[in-house]
Amino acid sequence: MNKYLQQLVNLSQIDQKIDNYAPRIDSINRNLQLKKDEIVAIDENIEKVDNEISELKAQIANTNSHINEFNAKIKDISKKSSAVKSEKEIKALNLEEDLAKDQLEAANEEIGRLERIIDNKNELKAELEEKKTQIQNSLDSLNNEVADELKAIENERSKIYDQKEKLLADMNQKILTFYEKIRKWAKNTAVVPVRKQACYGCFMKINDKTYAHIIKSDDITTCPHCGRILYKETIEE
Ligand SMILES: [Zn+2]
């Protein structure tokens, strides 16, 4: 193969490798982000449950102050009842006392109900916290794995950059400019093989004359349809 063409094939393969690192790094970071998002969602849930528990505790405190009022009232009634004489007054006081006792009982039941709800909320909170710990652990181990992977990618990448630098130093500037111009629109398909006598960039059939040129590969040939640089693959490629 023509030396310049061979250099272009190599350069395009190097550029492809370099461009492939970005999505790899993105996908690693995306996995980390998913776990972080899960933790944020759990934290929000825990906060919500905490608020609900505070609200329930406030209701209990409120009910307790009613209980104190009812107890005070019952005491007051019994004090009054020692002083009253008439049947009618006693009856009225008894009614009042019964009402206060009913209210007291209802209030105590209400506290029991609220406490049971708080117990359920606390159980839910414990479950959420356990789940959070699990995700945090898997995030930590993922972070460790990823650190190694990112380091490996960084190593590979710097090797590829070295290769590119060496290659560029050896290349003809005009040919390089020509390549970069095609790369602007064709991205990583600026240099493509010909397979089954078709351009592997635009997939159009190459005429016999151009195909013969490509097979000889003693010159740089572009696709007559799309303008990409074409080459005939050798067995080791
Ligand atoms: Zn083409």
Give the secondary structure arrangement, pairings included.
Elements: H1 3-83, H2 87-170, H3 173-186, E1 191-195, E2 198-199, H4 208-216, E3 221-222, E4 229-231
Parallel strand pairs: 1-4
Antiparallel strand pairs: 1-2, 3-4
The protein binds zinc ion.
Zinc ion (ZN) binds at residues 199, 201-202, 204, 223, 225-226, 228.
Brief summary:
With 237 residues, this protein is mostly helical.
Description:
Residues 11-184 form the CT398-like coiled coil hairpin domain. This protein is mainly alpha-helical. It is built from 4 helices and 4 strands; from the N terminus they run αααββαββ. It has helices spanning 3-83, 87-170, 173-186, 208-216; strands at 191-195, 198-199, 221-222, 229-231. Strands 2-1-4-3 form a 4-stranded mixed sheet. It is rod-shaped. The chain binds zinc ion. Zinc ion binds at residues 199, 201-202, 204, 223, 225-226, 228.
Bound molecules: zinc ion
CATH architectural category of the largest domain: Orthogonal Bundle
- What percentage of the residues does DSSP assign to strands (E)? 5-15%
Q: Judging from the principal axes of the Cα atoms, what is the shape?
A: rod-shaped
How many discrete structural domains? Answer: 2
Q: C-alpha Rg, in Å?
A: 41 Å
